């Protein structure tokens, strides 16, 4: 069952790039910060662990983040960090950010593997303030110190995938990374898998979806996200998809909001209008055949 006492820390992760991690992080951030307000006026915190910095630049609405102040993600890997100062984004969420093509964050991979535990301790101290009701982490692709650090912080891992023969391989990889993170964070678990860029008209997509459902059971989200151009446009413009008026944007908004509702149920996020909670089932790599 969802943990009733801890703040849900949701990592969007996949070893494969281009599957929708940043897209999902962005739109869920907009939803929680603007549309579906967290209970007790708690704030949303977003952490961008990806050195590409796409989530950070879109959430801040500007490409050049040098000099904006606040805490950058790479600082979380320092052993000693006196104060964490998230920056406020236009949508209302707080952000610990990476700059575009953040070479300093990239260079974390050159450091000792032990640095991956530092963000966990710093984030725990920040959450002691009681200000935050949820944390979203956009993870980098590929197995790395940054990915393990994100999973070591997380309570929930949500994996966006595309329906292809490589989807199961990606899930195997994430499960191995979760196993590593569990050594320091026994609370982390795979909470769900979201199919992105899905076409119900493609017999191959439908077949692959059915295969994933057979392997994952209830861990597969009921709602899929179709490939729709307005969703990419919304992310480029740094706006929530439901603020666009195109017909296909409305369909995309319906899908994104349904995904957000599932995330709230699966993670036990506390919102002002409580939703019926569902039982989470913990997965193991053996389930993904």
TrEMBL record:
Pfam families: AAA_31 (PF13614). Residues 9-189 form the AAA domain. Signal peptide: none annotated. InterPro entries: AAA_dom, DNA_Partitioning_ATPase, P-loop_NTPase. CDD domains: ParAB_family. This is Chromosome partitioning protein. It comes from Marinobacter nauticus (Marinobacter hydrocarbonoclasticus).
């Amino acid at each position: 069952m969802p943990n009733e006492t801890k703040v849900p820390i949701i990592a969007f992760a996949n070893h494969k790039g281009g599957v929708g991690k940043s897209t999902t992080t962005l739109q869920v951030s907009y939803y929680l910060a603007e549309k579906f307000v967290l209970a007790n006026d708690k704030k949303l915190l977003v952490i961008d662990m990806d050195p590409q910095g796409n989530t950070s630049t879109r959430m801040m609405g500007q490409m050049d983040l040098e000099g904006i102040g606040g805490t950058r993600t790479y600082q979380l890997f320092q052993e000693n960090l006196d104060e964490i100062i998230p920056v406020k984004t236009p949508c209302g969420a707080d952000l610990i950010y990476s700059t575009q093509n953040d070479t300093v964050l990239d260079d974390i991979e050159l450091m000792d593997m032990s640095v991956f535990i530092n963000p966990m301790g710093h984030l725990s101290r920040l959450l002691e303030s009681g200000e935050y009701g949820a944390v979203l982490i956009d993870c980098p692709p590929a197995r790395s110190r940054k990915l393990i650090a994100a999973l070591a912080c997380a309570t929930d891992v949500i994996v966006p995938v595309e329906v292809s023969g490589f989807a199961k391989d990606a899930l195997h990889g994430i499960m191995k990374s979760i196993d590593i993170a569990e050594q320091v964070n026994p609370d982390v678990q795979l909470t769900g898998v979201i199919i992105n860029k899905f076409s119900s008209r493609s017999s191959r997509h439908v077949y692959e979806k059915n295969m994933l459902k057979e392997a994952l059971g209830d861990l597969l989200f009921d709602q899929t996200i179709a490939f729709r151009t307005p969703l990419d446009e919304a992310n480029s413009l740094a706006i929530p998809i439901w603020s666009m008026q195109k017909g296909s944007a409305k369909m995309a908004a319906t899908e994104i909001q349904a995904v957000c509702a599932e995330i709230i149920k699966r993670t036990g996020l506390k919102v002002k209008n409580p939703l019926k909670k569902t039982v989470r089932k913990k997965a193991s790599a053996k389930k993904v055949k």
